[in-house]
Design brief:
It is a single chain. With 200 residues, this protein is an alpha/beta fold. It has 8 helices and 5 strands. The protein has a 5-stranded parallel beta sheet with strand order 3-2-1-4-5. Helix 1 runs parallel beside helix 5. The longest helix has 17 residues. The protein is globular and about 50 Å long.
């Protein structure tokens, strides 16, 4: 595209992984974005948040509340895109129990380790987690009723690929519940090349 600034996508992924590994390993540190259970409470999360173990909630790094768009229904199959430490996954797991399932995907192994530990601690048997890129979802077509995501799609340069994959894995009539950051003005070429602006 004309005027499109090129960004080193592999370097960007490395930096994003570093940032969110730090959020998982040292959640009490100060970051350039808010984190933790108190932040999720400020976002008016549903009552199910109370049952999410601190293992997950302490590393919550969402930007808003995707459940404000509507509660999930019992029996639905849900995909949590960029699940991080699993806070949204575990909220969703409670809503869709006992017969629904939630699959969380993230590219940060440290976050996934926390998500798995939190699911075990909570006794959530209707969740699973996989490491992978959201631009190439490792799931068959039409597998999920709902896709949720919180503060992740803004981190990915190829948004067309992400949305194409989401639509591929959603069943007919499926829905998106996305909380994310948007901008109102064009970003300069210099800004697009600034890794720090992408990662936080």
């Amino acid at each position: 595209m004309r005027g499109e600034a090129h960004i080193d996508v592999e370097l960007l992924k490395i930096e994003i992984k570093k940032m969110y590994a730090a959020v998982s390993q040292a959640p009490d540190n100060e970051f350039i974005f808010p984190t933790g259970r108190a932040w999720a409470e400020d976002l008016d999360y549903p009552d199910e948040l109370a049952r999410v173990p601190e293992t997950a909630a302490e590393s919550f790094a969402g930007v808003a509340n995707p459940f404000a768009l509507g509660r999930l229904e019992a029996g639905e199959d849900v995909l949590d895109i960029g699940c991080g430490a699993g806070t949204d996954t575990l909220v969703a797991a409670q809503m869709i129990a006992p017969s629904g399932n939630v699959m969380g995907i993230d590219m940060t192994s440290e976050m996934l380790a926390k998500a798995r530990a939190a699911a075990t601690e909570m006794g959530a048997t209707n969740v699973d987690f996989v490491e992978g890129d959201v631009e190439r979802l490792p799931f068959e077509a039409e597998r999920f009723d709902v896709a949720i995501s919180n503060g992740v799609i803004d981190l990915i340069p190829d948004k067309d690929a992400v949305f194409s994959e989401i639509f591929r894995v959603l069943r007919p009539g499926g829905r998106l519940q996305i909380a994310d950051v948007t901008i109102q003005k064009p970003v300069s070429d210099e800004g697009r090349r600034d890794i720090d602006l992408w990662t936080g």
